[in-house]
Structures are given as C-alpha cells and as structure tokens.
C-alpha cells in the first residue's frame, strides 16, 4: 500500500496560491449548499447554586446569542472565505426562520433555494455556564416532508447546481437530503465535472454514491463500517474498501485531535491537527468541509485543500460556540513572518490595503517605518527588530530608485528597488514591503494609517514625516536610537577608499 505522508513543505509550496485565493480569489467561485439548516442559540450564564425544587443547577442568565447552524453554518463558513453561496433546504414560517433569513441575507447568502415547509424551523438551544455546556434543547419535527415539498426542493437544487462550481450536501438527518435528491444532484455534478462533498449521517452511505468525497468523523465512519473508532488499525483499512464500493474519489475522515486523513482506495494522506488550544469543537466539521470545497472549486489538489481545512478548523475550535471561519483569521495565520516566503510580502498599495484590513479585523496592531535601505546594514536591522517590539505586523515603505536619486543624487541607489525590497522581505521581522515613488512617505502613511510610526534616532518628533497625522487617529511615534558610525554612506565611502 502506498502511504502518502504529511508534508509541511507541500503546504509551503502552495502558500502563495492559497494566500492569493484567501485574499481575493475565492470570490470567483459559487458553491451550492443543500441540507438541514437550523438556528443555533446559546443561553450564557453562571451556576452558583442547586435548585431547591430538584437536584439540578440554577443558571443565572446573562445573555443569549443566536447564529446560523447546520447547513447554514457551512454557508457562513464559505462566506467567511469569500465564496459566493447559494443555500437550499427547508425552514418553517416562524420567527426562527425570519431570524435565520436575516443572518443569511446580511452575510450575502442567496437563500432562493430555501423552501417554506409545513414544519417548524429546526433550532438548537445550548445552556452554557463558563464555557461548559449543561443542556441542549432541540426543536424539530420527526414527520417526513411531503412528496410535493421534496419535489420542489429537488427542482430548485438542480437549477442552482447548474450554476455552481462545487456542491456540498450537509446532512444532519433532519429530512432535507432524500436519496433521490442526492443521486440527482451527484449525477448532474458528475456530468458537469464539478466536485460534490458530503457531510454524512446514518449507517448507510449508499445515497451518496458517486460523490467526489464523503467527510465523516470517526464515530460516523465506525457506524457504517461496524467497527469501533478506537480500533483505527481495523477501521481505516476497512473504510478504504468503501471508496471503491461507493464509486467516490476518496473519503475525508476528520479524526479530532489526530487531524484529518484522506483515504483513497489504495493509499492515504494524513494532515495532523493544527489546533493550538481547543475550547469548543461545535461546527468544526462545517469549517472543514467548507474550506475543502472552496479549495476544490479553485482547482487545488485534495491534499492542499485538507491542509487548509485543518488550519481553518484549528482556528475555529479555539473559539467558543458555533463560529465560522473568517478570511482575516486565515490571512493572519498564513502571513506570520516566520512562515511567509519573501515574495509574498512584497505588495503594491492596493494589495497592501486589503491585507491591512484583514490584519486589523483580526485585532493586530500595524507598525510602519520607511527609508531607502540601500545596502542593508546593522543599523537597519536594529531598527526593524525594534519595530517588531512595538506591534504585531511590520510594514516597510521603500523609496523607489527614482525617489532615491532625487534624495541622494544620481549615483544612488547602489542596489535596485526590487532587490532592496526582496532583501527586506526575507527578514523575519518584516510582514509587508511596499515601494513608493514620492520624495516623502506622507501619502503612503495616510493610506496605511499605522498604529505606530517608527524612525531612527537621527530624527526628532518635529522632523518625522507623518508624525502629526499618526497622532490624529490615535497612533504614536517611536524613535529608535541609531547605531553610531553605521550608515549606507559610510559603507560606500569605505568601499570606495579600498579600491
């Protein structure tokens, strides 16, 4: 059996492409989510005593939150990635539907595939004290949907599937995904050559036959295979037989703290977990299938898609409650200076502003400094290392060749603008580099709006360009002492004297 091992280098090779997709490229794709939508509520509070009426805790409520759940949470994760989304399923004519519809509309989800059925909108209410779930109350009907309702949903799903770049079947066993609907959608997707991903339920996966991938967790896989999830050495090989039996391309198995595994008929690929600290696994599977679907729609290979999905899930489980992934969180993860490649840090102004917005959405402070940086020396390095101490992301404005000539004379710069930018971008203390043509960075500073503006000790607060503007929006100015006797001019003079 061929074993495809986890390869961190593979993810790094795809990093530029992934970053491009996360920042803007996923917006080019439309994904249809069909399945059981629901409203998730959480009642938060503190438990300080036991009821005198019965041996149960008394929750003193301090607040209630609501969010889209089930298949609707899958849609919200896709929106968070920047994907255009169509939602199809059932909901009732009630206040829960109106609240859920408002969430989806505000997020930009096209809910034209939703059918108002004779049942109530599915809802789940969790009672939570200090991040510990005490009780869950579900409101749903066990009466099957009528043939007429099923037929309308099938027709709308087929119509929307003709416009999709990928399809997700999100099955919570609440009645939206009948076998005829699944098979009709999968057949159309195969005909069109687009991926179909399934979040399954139940002991029988045959209604998902022909899909691109089915994405069970270990417990769901154990039910189908009839093998305990504690016996991975038996369960996973047995599961590989399902790939050929169901006519799917591969299984994508979420394994909790063990990561995610792709099971092909004769091989596998494993992506270990990337969660830093787990608070709540609610909705993590929705995040995984959304990130994988977006990746496949964009033409990425399954292994890269699973690695991206694993990173996204690691972010989500570090939060409490049903919380979809946001692009800003992924951008922050991918743009850590320790793992970014140098070329990915060199940006034009438009792309820099996009990245800045995403960093700020993630609560990160922006530090800005500027200069010619012609022949990098220890003074420059000291300045940039200090910049890192003042905030979370360091942006460097580099004078263009024309700008340097205007400031320093016709013999400068010694090193061209692209080479100077590339050297700066290779430093671990740098997160973004932008080249500007003006004699001063005043306009660039106004566009960047840094939280901290940093210059060397040969400046004073009154001579630093942009200092007054930075303070108007609540930022501050930091002056870093220069390294005595070290400058580009001195370096050039020494080189000339030795000739």
What does it look like?
The longest helix is centred in the N-terminal third of the chain and has 15 residues, at 147-161. β15, α13 and β16 form a beta-alpha-beta unit. The protein has helices at residues 8-13, 15-23, 71-80, 95-107, 147-161, 179-192, 218-225, 232-246, 284-297, 302-316, 327-334, 349-361, 378-390, 401-408, 417-425, 442-448, 467-472, 488-497; strands at residues 2-4, 30-35, 37-50, 57-70, 84-91, 110-116, 123-129, 132-139, 166-170, 196-199, 213-214, 250-254, 260-263, 267-271, 366-371, 393-399, 432-436, 452-456, 476-480. It has 2 domains: 2-334, Ribokinase (UDP-N-acetylmuramoyl-L-alanine:D-glutamate ligase), CATH 3.40.1190.20; 342-497, 3-Layer(aba) Sandwich (Rossmann fold). It is of the alpha/beta class.
**Cα shape:** elongated
Terminal Cα span: 64 Å
CATH architecture of the largest domain: 3-Layer(aba) Sandwich
Instruction: Give the CATH topology of the largest domain.
Output: UDP-N-acetylmuramoyl-L-alanine:D-glutamate ligase
Amount of helix: 25-40%
- In the CATH hierarchy, what is the class of the largest domain? Alpha Beta
Within CATH, the superfamily of the largest domain carries the name Ribokinase
- Outline the low-pLDDT stretches: 1-7
Outline the fold blueprint.
Blueprint: E1 2-4, H1 8-13, H2 15-23, E2 30-35, E3 37-50, E4 57-70, H3 71-80, E5 84-91, H4 95-107, E6 110-116, E7 123-129, E8 132-139, H5 147-161, E9 166-170, H6 179-192, E10 196-199, E11 213-214, H7 218-225, H8 232-246, E12 250-254, E13 260-263, E14 267-271, H9 284-297, H10 302-316, H11 327-334, H12 349-361, E15 366-371, H13 378-390, E16 393-399, H14 401-408, H15 417-425, E17 432-436, H16 442-448, E18 452-456, H17 467-472, E19 476-480, H18 488-497
Parallel strand pairs: 1-14, 2-5, 2-9, 3-7, 5-6, 9-10, 10-11, 11-12, 15-16, 15-18, 16-17, 18-19
Antiparallel strand pairs: 3-4, 7-8, 12-13, 13-14
Helix pairs in contact: 2-11, 3-9, 5-6, 9-10, 11-12
């Amino acid at each position: 059996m061929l074993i495809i091992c986890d390869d961190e280098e593979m993810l790094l090779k795809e990093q530029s492409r992934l970053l491009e997709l996360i920042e803007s490229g996923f917006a080019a794709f439309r994904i249809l989510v069909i399945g059981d939508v629901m409203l998730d509520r959480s009642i938060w509070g503190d438990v300080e005593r036991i009821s005198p009426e019965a041996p149960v805790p008394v929750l003193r409520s301090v607040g209630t939150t609501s969010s889209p759940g089930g298949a609707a949470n899958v849609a919200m994760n896709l929106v968070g990635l920047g994907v255009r989304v169509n939602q199809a399923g059932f909901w009732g004519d009630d206040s829960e539907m109106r609240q859920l519809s408002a969430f989806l509309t505000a997020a930009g989800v096209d809910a034209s595939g939703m059918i108002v059925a004779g049942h109530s909108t599915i809802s789940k209410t969790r009672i939570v004290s200090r991040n510990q779930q005490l009780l869950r109350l579900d409101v749903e009907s066990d009466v099957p949907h009528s043939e007429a309702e099923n037929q309308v949903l099938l027709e709308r799903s087929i119509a929307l599937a003709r416009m999709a770049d990928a399809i997700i079947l999100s099955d919570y066993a609440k009645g939206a995904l009948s076998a005829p609907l699944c098979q009709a959608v999968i057949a159309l997707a195969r005909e069109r050559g687009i991926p179909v991903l399934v979040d399954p339920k139940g002991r029988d996966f045959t209604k998902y036959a022909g899909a691109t991938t089915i994405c069970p967790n270990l417990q769901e896989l154990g039910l189908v295979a009839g093998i305990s999830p504690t016996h991975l050495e038996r369960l996973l090989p047995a599961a590989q037989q399902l790939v050929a039996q169901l006519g799917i391309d591969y299984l994508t198995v979420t394994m909790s703290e063990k990561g995610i595994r792709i099971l092909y008929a004769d091989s596998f690929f494993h992506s270990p977990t990337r969660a830093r600290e787990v608070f709540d696994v609610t909705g993590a599977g929705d995040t995984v299938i959304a990130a994988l679907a977006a990746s496949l729609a964009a033409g990425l290979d399954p292994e890269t898609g699973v690695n991206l999905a694993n990173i996204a899930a690691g972010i989500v489980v570090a939060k409490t409650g049903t919380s979809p992934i946001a692009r800003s969180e992924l951008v922050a993860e991918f743009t850590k200076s320790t793992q970014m490649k140098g070329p990915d840090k060199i940006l034009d102004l438009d792309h820099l502003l996009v990245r800045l917005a995403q960093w700020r959405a993630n609560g990160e402070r922006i530090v800005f400094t500027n200069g010619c940086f012609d022949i990098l020396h220890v003074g420059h390095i000291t300045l940039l290392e200090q910049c890192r101490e003042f905030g979370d992301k360091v942006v460097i404005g580099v004078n263009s060749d024309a700008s340097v000539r205007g400031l320093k004379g016709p013999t400068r710069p010694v090193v061209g603008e692209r080479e100077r930018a590339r050297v700066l971008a290779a430093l671990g203390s740098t997160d973004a580099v932008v080249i500007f043509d003006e004699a001063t960075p005043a306009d660039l500073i106004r566009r960047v709006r840094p939280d901290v503006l940093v210059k060397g000790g040969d400046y004073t607060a009154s001579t630093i360009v942009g200092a007054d503007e930075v303070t108007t929006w609540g930022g501050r100015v930091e002056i870093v002492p220069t390294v005595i006797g070290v400058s580009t001019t001195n370096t050039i003079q020494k080189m000339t004297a030795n000739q």
